[in-house]
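User: Hey, my collaborator sent me this sequence without any context and asked if I could get a structure. I don't really work with proteins. Can you help?
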Amino acid sequence: MNDHIRPSDSLRNVRYEIRGRLARRAHEMERMGHEVISLNIGNPGLFGFRTPETMRLAMIENLRQSEGYCHQKGIFPAREAVVMQQQARGVQGVSAEEVFIGNGVSELIDLVLRAMLNEGEEVLVPSPDYPLWTAAVNLNRGRAVHYPCLPENGFVPDPEAVEALVTRRTRAIVVINPNNPTGAVYPRAVLEGLARIAERHDLVVLADEIYDQILYDGAEFVPMATLVHDTLCATLSGLSKVYRACGYRVGWAVFSGRLQSAGEYLSGLELLSSLRLCSNVPAQWAVQTALGGYQSIHELTAPGGRLHESRAAIAEAVAGSEFLRVQVPLGALYAFIGIDTTKLPDFDDQGFALDLLEQKRVLVAPGTSFSVPYRNHFRVTNLPDAATLKVVFGRMHELLSMYASGARATPGPARVVDAASRFK
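Assistant: No problem. I've predicted the 3D structure and written it out in C-alpha cell form, which is a compact way to encode the shape of the chain:
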C-alpha cells in the first residue's frame, strides 16, 4: 500500500520563495510572540495604506447587482473603463471585447499562458523577474528563457542580447515595467527595441504594467501597447498596487496590436475564462471609479509623500553603508539591494536572509528568488514608513558588521540548506 501522496511532477520547476520557507518561519516566530518586520511582499494594506473610499462606496452601492455570475470577461462598466484608460494613453483599436477581467493579474498570467503554450515552447522572461511569470510558464508546459537585466546596466535589458535568445520555439516576451523587483523604469528607446524584436519574430508581447503610475523623480512610463503594432500585445494591470486594493483581487488583460490574427487564441482564452465562470463580481464595480476618479497615488509618490520619503530613506541608508549598493528605484514599490562582495566575498543571500530573520527579526526576499544567477542581492519593499526603514537598515548594518569582523561566520550555501530544512 502506498501511503505517500506525491505532488504533481509539474511542480518540480516551480518556485515562489517570496511566500516560501522564510515567510513560513516568520509566521511561526510571530505565533511565538516575536515582532517581525516583513519586507518580503508589496502588500499596502499591511502597512496602513487604505483603498480610496470612493472605491469602497462603489462596491457597496452595487452589491445587489453582484450576487450572480457575470459575463466571463467581466462586467461591462469595468471593461469599458479599462478601454477608456487605454485610449487616453494612445492605444488604438481596443474595445471592451478585447478586455478580460480576472481575479488579480496573477490569475490572468496563468490564463494567457495556458491558452498559448504547447509542450516545450519558450517564453522570454526578464532576470530578475517577478517569479510568478517563470512559475506559470513552467506550469503550462513551457520553458522560461531568462534575458539578463544586469545591475551594471541599471537593471535595464539590452535589446540585442534579448534578440540573441530568440529561437524557432519562442512564442512570447514578458516585459515588466516599472519593474518588480528592481524598480527600474525602462526608457522609450529600449521598449521600442523590444517591440521591434517581437514584431520581427512574431512574438506575443506580455506587458506586466501593474505599477504603471507608481513613479518617482519625473520618471516616464511608456505603455508598451503604444509601441506594438504588428504583433499581439497583452497589457496586464489591476487595482492591487496603484489603488492599494490587493485583497479585491481585480486585474485585467487588454489585447491590442495585430488582433486580426489572434481570433482563435482569444477564443481559447475566453473558453478558459468561462471554465472558471467569472472573476470576483463585487470588486469589479470599483474599477470604473478607480480609473475615472482622483488618482491619489500621485500624492504618495511626490516629494513629501509617504512612498517617496520611504524610498528616500532606503537610498540614504544604502548610501551611508560600506556594505550595501543599490540602483535607486524610479518606480514600483521595491529596491533590489546588492552587497559589495569586495567587503564580504563569501556573502550568500539565502543565509543572510535567514540570519536577518532569526537574529534581527526582519524578513526580506533573497535575490535568487527572482531568477538571477548571482547570490549577493535581496529585495525590500518601501511600503513601511521612513522611521521603520531606518530601524531595519540599522539592524542590517549590525549583522553585516558582524560578518565583516568575523564575529559571526558569513553564511554559505551549505549552511543555508541545513538551516532551511527545519522549515519543511
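In plain terms: The CA atoms of residues 72 and 274 lie 5 Å apart. You can pass these C-alpha cells on to your collaborator as they are.
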